[in-house]
Amino acid sequence: MPSLQRICRQLSKPPWSDVLKMLMLLGLFTWLLYRGSTKLGYHWQWHRVPRYLFSYHHGQLALGPLLQGLLVTFRVSGWGLVLTFAIGLVVALLRLSGSLVGGLVSRLYLEIIRNTPLLVQLFFVYFVLAPLVGLDRFAAAVLALSLFEGSYASEIFRAGIASIHSGQWEAAYSLGLGTYHTYRYVILPQAVRRILPPLTSQAVSLVKDSALVSTIAVYDLTMRAQEVISETFLTFEIWFTVAAMYLLITVTLSSVVNILEHRLRVAD
After folding, report:
1. Is 225:263 a contact under the CB 8 Å cutoff?
2. What predicted TM-score, i.e. pTM, was given to this entire model?
3. ∠213-219-221 over CA atoms, to 5°?
4. Do residues 32 and 188 lie in contact, with contact meaning Cβ atoms separated by under 8 Å?
């Protein structure tokens, strides 16, 4: 069996070869970083970075500006994820409903959102829409992010629902279930299992795109980093630290979803 042979070949490969490749890659990256900083004449000051992560005052540990910004990033991303999935599901159901008005509204929303830059949408929501409905900058940031990412999530939901075999619908209807209960108990549980990987990619994209909310003065991680850099000129140290924090968030998110996906597959 080809798949069994491939697994055997992978298991027979010595693990140190992968470790060696990783070390070589890290060595190359370090060398490039060293050469670049040498040519620029940059003086690295990593020892000054920890004070912007946390500090110790009067016997108590306090969060530094970067970790305070990280908490705001978590709030923006968390609310953004909830709204993104809600918008994506509603738009997908509208497109699949067969309603002429629902189809037109969802199609118009998709074409406008997907064909304009996120930054422009963010400015439109904050400077035009938010004053009309009384939204503060945090809510405006969450709404703009959710509308943008929701347009892509809707296509993922639609593809997942459309991938369910028509026999599932027929079986549900033959049991007397209506459309709502068919979606809730039969179609969506199966569709969600199939679309978890692309939904995770969309969630990772939302976390990274949340850095743009700093342009409307939401004090997230990126805004706090700009603030620290303007005071200290630790440009590379702070941006590398911020990149590492974003990487940690997205890798953790992907790992959690991978575990969840594996458990759902086992449950099947």
Report:
1. no
2. 0.82
3. 80
4. no
CB 246 within 8 A of CB 181: no
Q: At what angle do helices 235-267 and 188-209 cross, to 10 degrees?
A: 180
What integer pLDDT is reported at residue 33 of this predicted model? 80
- Taking the C-alpha atoms of residue 129 and residue 153, their distance in angstroms, rounded to an integer, is 23
Asked if residue 246 lies in contact with residue 62, where contact means CB atoms within 8 angstroms, the answer is no
**Which 3 state secondary structure label does DSSP give 55?**
strand
Residue bearing tokens 């490039």: 32
Residue 1, pLDDT score: 47
Measure the CA–CA gap between 262 and 58, rounded to whole angstroms: 47
More confident residue, 163 or 259: 163
Whether the Cβ atoms of residue 92 and residue 155 lie closer than 8 Å to each other = yes
What is the spatial distance between Cα 91 and Cα 155, in angstroms, rounded to a whole number? Answer: 9
Bridge partners (DSSP) listed for residue 54: 63
Task: Flag whether pLDDT at 73 surpasses 50.
Answer: yes
Mean pLDDT taken over the chain: 88
% of the chain with per-residue pLDDT over 70:
93
Contact residues for 36 (Cβ-Cβ < 8 A; gap 6+): none
List residues bridging with 63 in a β-sheet: 54
